Amino acid sequence: MKLTPALLLLALAAPLEAQTAAGPGIDTAGMDRSVRPGDDFFRYANGGWFTHTEIPADRAAVGGSSVAGRRGQERLADIVRDASAAHAPAGSELRKVGDFYTSLLDTAAIERAGLTPIGPLLARIAAIGDRAALARFAGATLRADVDVINDGALHTDNLFGLWVDQDFDTPTRNSAALMQGGIEMPDRRYYLDSSAAMTAIRAKYRTHVAKMLTLAGIADAEQQADAIVRLETKIAGVHWTREDTWDVTRGNVHWRRADFAKKAPGLDWPAFFAAANLADIPVLVAWQASAVTGISALTASEPLDDWKALLAYHAIEHHARVLPAAFEREAFDFFGRTLSGAQEQSPRARRAVDATSAALGFVVGRMYVERYFPASAKREAAAMVAGILHALDQRIVRLDWMAPATKAAARAKLRTIRVSVGYPDRWPSYAGLVVRRGDAYGNGDRVERFQYAENIRKLHRPVDRDEWSLRPQEVNAVNMPAMNAMNFPAAILQPPFFDPARPSAMNYGAIGAAIGHEISHSFDNLGAGFDATGRLRNWWTPADLAHFNAAAEQLVKQYDGYRPFPDLAVNGRLTLTENLADLTGLAASYDAWRASLGGKPAPVVAGLTGDQQLFLSYAQTWRSKARDARLRQQILTDGHAPGQYRALTVRNIDAWYDAFDVKPGEALYLAPGDRVRIW
Fold this sequence. Notes:
Layout: H1 41-52, E1 61-63, H2 66-84, H3 93-105, H4 107-113, H5 119-126, H6 131-140, E2 160-166, E3 174-180, H7 189-192, H8 196-215, H9 221-238, H10 242-245, H11 248-251, E4 254-256, H12 259-263, H13 269-275, E5 283-286, H14 289-301, H15 304-318, H16 325-338, H17 348-359, H18 361-372, H19 375-398, H20 404-416, E6 418-422, H21 440-458, E7 478-480, E8 485-489, H22 504-520, H23 542-560, H24 576-596, H25 610-621, E9 624-626, H26 628-637, H27 643-646, H28 654-660
Parallel strand pairs: 3-5, 6-8
Antiparallel strand pairs: 1-9, 2-3, 4-5, 7-8
Helix pairs in contact: 1-25, 2-3, 2-17, 2-18, 3-17, 5-15, 6-13, 8-9, 8-16, 9-15, 17-18, 19-20, 19-22, 19-24, 22-24, 22-25
């Protein structure tokens, strides 16, 4: 699930070693057969790869998605370069792609421009003379840059973030949600945690803030940096935790527009809403209600000059990519090197390709599909989806703990799931977006404004159940619980996840488990709260819900026990949604694969039985290696457990024990009664 709030299905990417012996599906040379599968299945499947793989200097982590990711990067680079050389008609979508990319590569023009492009924005901030002007500026710079359910982005440097999605109470309309913002570091714990490691990071951050202000020629940079970090720390103090943010029943708080002044006094809300083009929206969602209240109070209690300093710094940081190189180098030094552990920046051309693909995602996506996505891949993936849906339905039928009424509701929901494979049926238009060659700063700013305006327009249109949340060129997949819909982009439907030439067990262990994972998000601890129409509603009997919650608690404790560092364990509560989807998805994919054999035995490949091929393929999709800084950041902020622990989902699947002869006394062994079983 892309529980962007983009649970990212595949969060880490990097080079995968050459596939050998068992063909393109299983890297037998990357295994470590000296390790018993029942002691450490991740090492058994990936130990050789882990030992011999080096993390590239420009990356913080490497992982099993890199074959598709690397191939996708090469393809996107070809697409974007071709567009830049095409001399397409002015205003055409192809021309926009080429001009956006070319502008990012024109570093000479960016250096010549200096701070001129950002000058008007900094002048607007400097001109803020009272609290009403502060509110107007905050509203005018509101952006559609956060999402709790569809892509996991829980961070914005604007005062608030906007999330537009299907309303959880009234699924026939879209609603606007305001979410907490105002900080640059990834999470509140970076400001509030008193550990030595976090204290050191905060010291480096304060130095970084001062350097960015100095580069911008701002006077009193040192004093302003102190004020900025102090104010961000106060903002972080009212922020919700990630675990609380993902509690949809707690977050789904509707306020009438007039209620904001009463329930969140401090900010001039009428001025804010008018500047944000939200003055005609009668009801909004205050997703982290107490944080909205707390941030609003701070706009009144903290010195106006401190707010202006913070806004100026955030503006500089936000646009560092399109400012002179010194800004981008300094931003990378803190956010890339200090926070993530990367040693070098990726080449500018690669970063420009990524930025272009994000800015004009469905234009690039359409070109990707036309060049690289055959209709046969879509048909075969759709057939796998149908088989896995049927397998999950049969698992529901066989449940001995679930009441008939709950079963009927679950099966009805399963029948109404909308699964889109490859690309959308209707391509979004970028007709209103202006892209100018040589204007890297302006292009980025106009893309953000265009995307914001599109989201505001959604508030005045019926819900589009065919809307895609992912771009076709993304190596990812997503479940949208409120829509009861899924996207499986074209780019994930390729090796190492999917290859029609290899034995079916390998495909079911890789892409099949991913498909099952996304389907299962409709029935995890978050998705199970939505009914077949997308309404947030409890459709469970009390006894069934108690059973579900008790089993989920088993999984929380299981993952709480994984400790990558002596002082930091995996957060079983934070990662529960993903862990539930991993478990159910793998189980359903296994059942679907067995059914696809039609009673015939699976072929043995390189001495591996069909069951072994499936479980090894699953574990190898989660191969990952991360720098310590990146791994710590993932554990603190990501709803996905690190890959080495996601591979251990197998210890809850009975067939894995038989496939690898796992016995009591081995580290991963769970007695049958201790294995987590839900769906």
